[in-house]
Design a protein that fits this description.
Elements (H helix, E strand, L loop, with lengths): L1 E4 L3 E7 L5 E3 L8 E2 L2 E4 L15 E5 L10 E2 L6 H5 L1 H14 L7 E4 L5 H13 L6 E4 H11 L9 E7 L3 E8 L4 E9 L4 H16 L8 H15 L4 E6 L2 E7 H25 L7 E7 L8 H9 L4 E2 L6 H6 L7 H5 L8 H23 L2 E3 L7 E3 L2 H17 L1 H10 L9 H31 L4 H8 L3 H16 L8 H5 L3 H19 L7 H23 L3 H17 L6 H25 L25
Helix pairs in contact: 5-6, 5-7, 7-8, 11-12, 11-18, 12-14, 12-15, 12-18, 12-21, 13-14, 14-15, 14-16, 16-21, 18-19, 19-20, 19-21
Length: 623
C-alpha cells in the first residue's frame, strides 16, 4: 500500500505483484480529507469535519509536525489526531485485502529533512501501520511516468512540478538504479491553499464588506469545491454558513490563480538553474498534484521557462501510484531486453574499421618478404606498421559495436544491473576491449605460425600499440557504469571512431606497403614512388583527422604533417608511422573522454526574472 498524505487530501493505492492496482476510496471519493480537528473533549472528530463546539486543536494534515498545529487552551494529542486519516486508510485497506497490509510506502516531499521524516514514521506507527518506507514525491512521479510508457533514458533530466496545497519543484536525473534529486525548491504560498485564501477573501468580501468577523475555516470546504468546479464551469453558487450564498465566476478564479501560477513558473526556472542545467537539457516538465489543472499554470511555466509542461492525467493520484512501483522489479524487462539494430550510419562505423583491419592483415601476410627459405638463415620482413594498424582497426571495430555487444550480453544475463543503459554500455565496452585484444593476439599467433617464426615480436607489435586505447576504453566503461554524465548523441555515437580517418589511414598504409614491395620495373619506378608518397600524405591527414576536430585546425595542421609523412616514407619508417597512428587514436579517445563525458562545457544558468534562487523547505509542497 502506498499513501500520499497531501496537505489537502490523503490518497492511497493498493498494488499487487502482478502489476494490478486498486485506489482506495472513502464514501466513493478517492481522496480523504487530511485535516483533522480535536474538540475540547480530546476526541478526534472525523477528518475534514470540524466539531460544533469550540475547536481546541486543528491539525492541517499528517505531514505537519506537532508545532505546526494550532492548539487552544484545552490542548490535545496532535500525533493522535494526525494519525486519524492514516488509521481510516489502514482500515479500508484491510477490508479490501482481508488482512493487514505489511508493505507500506508513504510519500514525502523531496525537501524534507530527518525531523519531518521521523514525524511521519511516528504518525504511521500511531495509526497501526508497519514501519513505512518513505518515498520522495518526485521520485514516485518519475517511476509512474516510466510505467505509463514515457521514455526517460538513463542519464536524462526531468522536472516534476508538484502543485498541491503548496508547490514543490524538483529536478531529477535518471541513474542506473533509479532517480536522484538534483535540486528542489518549495513554497507553501504557491499552491491551492493560496488560491483558496484569495478566493475566500473575494467571496467573503463580496458578501460582508471586507469579511469582518467571518471565519476562514468555516468556508474552506465550500471554497475548495467551488475552485474545482470553476475549472470546467463559468460560474458556480457557493454556500456560506450563516449568510446567503454567493456567486463565484471564472474571472475570480483567474485572478486568484495568476500570482500562484507565476510563482510556480519562477520556482521551475530557479530549480533548473540550481541544478546547473538549461531547459534544453530536460527530457520534459511534468505537472502533478491536486492543483496541477488550475488555469494558466501550464501557460505560465511555458512562458517563463520556454518549456511546455505536461499535466499528467489524474494528477492527484500520480504520486501514490508511482510510490508502489519504486523498487519493484519489472519481470517483463528482466526477461526480455531488446537488442538494438544499429542504423546505417552506426553499421558503417562498425563495418569500416572491421573491413580495414582484414584488408591490412591480408596485404601484410601476402606481401611479406621471405629470405633464405631454402637455407639455414631464414627470415621474414613484415611491415610492422601495417601489422600494428590491423590490430588497431580490429579494436576500433569492436568498440564501435560496444552498445550492441552490451545488449546481447544483457539479454542473457541474470544480473539486473546489466539491464540499465549504463550497465549495458559498460559491459559492452569491456567485452569489446576483450574481443579486440583477442583478435589482435590472434593476428599475432596466426602470422607467426604462417611464417614459422617466434610469436614474441608479433605479440609486441600487436598488443602494445593498442594498450593506450584499451585503457581509455576501460575508463569510458567506468564512466558508463557510474553514469557521471550521459554524452550528447548517445553512447553509440561516442564509441564510433571517425570513419574518414580510418579510410584515409587504411588506403595510405596500403599504398605505402605497395610502394615498398612492388616489382620495380624501370617504367614503373616513378609511379611506385608517387604511390608511396601519396600514401604518406593520406596517413598524415588521417592522423590529423583523429587528433583535431575543428575544420580550420585540420586544414592548418594537415598540410605540414602530410608533407613530413610523405618525406619519411621508407621501409625503416613504416613501423614508426603505424605506431604514430595508434597514438593518434589513443589521443582521440582521451580527448573524447575528457571533453564529452568527464569535463563537459558547463551549461549557462537560466537567469531568474524576479531575483536570486531561494530554497524554501516549507512543508506545503505536494497535495
Amino acid at each position: 500500500m502506498s499513501i500520499d498524505c497531501g496537505s489537502a487530501g490523503t490518497r492511497a493505492v493498493l498494488a499487487w505483484a502482478d502489476g494490478s492496482a486498486h485506489v482506495l476510496s472513502s464514501d466513493g471519493n478517492p481522496s480523504l480529507h487530511s485535516a483533522s480537528y480535536m474538540p475540547a473533549n480530546k476526541q478526534a472528530a472525523p477528518p475534514g469535519q470540524p466539531a460544533r463546539d469550540q475547536l481546541a486543536a486543528f491539525i492541517p494534515g499528517p505531514r505537519h509536525p506537532v508545532e505546526d498545529a494550532t492548539a487552544g487552551d484545552a490542548g490535545g494529542d496532535a500525533l493522535e489526531v494526525a494519525a486519524s486519516p492514516l488509521r481510516r486508510v489502514a482500515a479500508e485497506a484491510e477490508r479490501v485485502v482481508g488482512q493487514p497490509v505489511r508493505d507500506v510506502r508513504v510519500v514525502v516531499p523531496a525537501g524534507w529533512g530527518p525531523r519531518r521524516r521521523t514525524w511521519m514514521r511516528q504518525v504511521a506507527h500511531r495509526a497501526g501501520l508497519p514501519q513505512p518506507r518513505l518515498v520522495e514525491a518526485p521520485v514516485a512521479v518519475a517511476e509512474y511516468l516510466l510505467t505509463t510508457g514515457v521514455q526517460v533514458p538513463v542519464g536524462a533530466f526531468l522536472v516534476v512540478c508538484d502543485v498541491g496545497a503548496g508547490a514543490e519543484v524538483t529536478v531529477l536525473r535518471r541513474g542506473p538504479v533509479g532517480f536522484e534529486v538534483l535540486a528542489t525548491l518549495a513554497d507553501a504560498a504557491a499552491g491551492g491553499a493560496a488560491v483558496d485564501h484569495a478566493l475566500a477573501d473575494a467571496l467573503i468580501g463580496a458578501s460582508m464588506g471586507e469579511g469582518q468577523g467571518a471565519s476562514r475555516a468555516s468556508v474552506a470546504h465550500s471554497v475548495r469545491v467551488a475552485k474545482e468546479a470553476l475549472v470546467s464551469h463559468p460560474a458556480v453558487t457557493v454556500p456560506l454558513p450563516d449568510r446567503p450564498p454567493v456567486i463565484a465566476n471564472s474571472a475570480m478564479l483567474d485572478e486568484a490563480v495568476r500570482p500562484v501560477a507565476w510563482r510556480v513558473a519562477q520556482l521551475t526556472q530557479e530549480a533548473v538553474a540550481a541544478a546547473e542545467l538549461t531547459v534544453g537539457d530536460l527530457a520534459g516538465v511534468y505537472c502533478v498534484g491536486g492543483s496541477a489543472q488550475l488555469p494558466h499554470l501550464a501557460a505560465a511555466i511555458a512562458e517563463h521557462t520556454g518549456a511546455a509542461p505536461v499535466v499528467v492525467p489524474e494528477p492527484g493520484l500520480v504520486a501514490a501510484r508511482g510510490a508502489a512501483d519504486v523498487g519493484a522489479v519489472d519481470t517483463a524487462t528482466v526477461e526480455r531486453v531488446e537488442v538494438p539494430v544499429p542504423p546505417v550510419r552506426r553499421a558503417a562505423a562498425i563495418a569500416v574499421p572491421g573491413f580495414a583491419s582484414l584488408a591490412l592483415i591480408w596485404q601484410c601476410l601476402l606481401t611479406a618478404e621471405r629470405h633464405g627459405t631454402l637455407g639455414v638463415y631464414y627470415s621474414v620482413r613484415v611491415n610492422w606498421g601495417e601489422f600494428t594498424m590491423a590490430a588497431v582497426m580490429a579494436l576500433l571495430a569492436c568498440l564501435a559495436a560496444g552498445t550492441v555487444l552490451g545488449s546481447l550480453i544483457a539479454a542473457r544475463s541474470p544480473t539486473p544491473g546489466t539491464r540499465t543503459e549504463g550497465g549495458r554500455v559498460s559491459v559492452g565496452i569491456l567485452a569489446a576491449v576483450s574481443l579486440g585484444a583477442a583478435i589482435a593476439g590472434l593476428y599475432a599467433v596466426v602470422t607467426s605460425q604462417y611464417f614459422g617464426m617466434p610469436v614474441g615480436p608479433y605479440l609486441k607489435w600487436a598488443l602494445w600499440p593498442i594498450a593506450p586505447v584499451s585503457v581509455m576504453a576501460v575508463a569510458m566503461a567506468v564512466v558508463a557504469a557510474r553514469q557521471w554524465r550521459s554524452p550528447h548523441g548517445g553512447w553509440s555515437a561516442l564509441l564510433a571512431a571517425p570513419t574518414g580517418s580510418i579510410v584515409a589511414a587504411t588506403f595510405g598504409m596500403g599504398l605505402i606497403q605497395y610502394s615498398l614491395t612492388a616489382d620495380r620495373w624501370p617504367d614503373r619506378i616513378l609511379w611506385i614512388d608517387i604511390a608511396g608518397r601519396v600514401g604518406g600524405l593520406l596517413l598524415g591527414v588521417a592522423v590529423v583527422m583523429a587528433v583535431v576536430t575543428p575544420l580550420m585546425f585540420r586544414l592548418i595542421l594537415a598540410a605540414p604533417l602530410a608533407v613530413i609523412f610523405a618525406a619519411i616514407v621508407s621501409r625503416r619508417a613504416a613501423g614508426m608511422l603505424g605506431v604514430i597512428y595508434a597514438i593518434a587514436v589513443a589521443t582521440w579517445w582521451a580527448t573524447r573522454l575528457w571533453s564529452r563525458v568527464l569535463r563537459p562545457a558547463p551549461p549557462t544558468p537560466t537567469a531568474s526574472a524576479t531575483g536570486p534562487v531561494r530554497a524554501d523547505m516549507s512543508p506545503g509542497g505536494g497535495g
